Amino acid sequence: MIDIGKSVGFLLAKAYQRGCAIFKEEFEGYDITPQQFGLLGFLWQEDGLSQAELSVRSQIDRTTMGGLIDRLEKEGLVKRLSDPDDRRAYRICLTARGKVMEEELSVIAIRTQSRFTGALTEEEQETLKKLLQKLRS
To answer: Is residue 2 scored above 90 in pLDDT?
Structure first.
């Protein structure tokens, strides 16, 4: 008989819920979700990615991606620009406001991650990351 409370799926789901709750608390006052923050993070690393490339990197389907970008655009953090190499595609670019928010939001994200993983040693955190990357592939 399976002990559901100790199953990997249950534990991952509960850890995800806790992480989202901490994110929500820390980012209170900012109209941003963890998924939107992730997209901003990819754009802070490399601005002007195509919507398709953002989908691949974030592993979010194209339909969901469109809605996320719509909301970031509505908040004035990104803008869609025509891709000079493909008339059917758009490049997603940070606005001036989106660029300025990097420092402020990154500080909050680091604090959020520290709260979430605070019970783990640095070695355990590295092991967790490696294990999660294995499960994701």
So the answer is: no
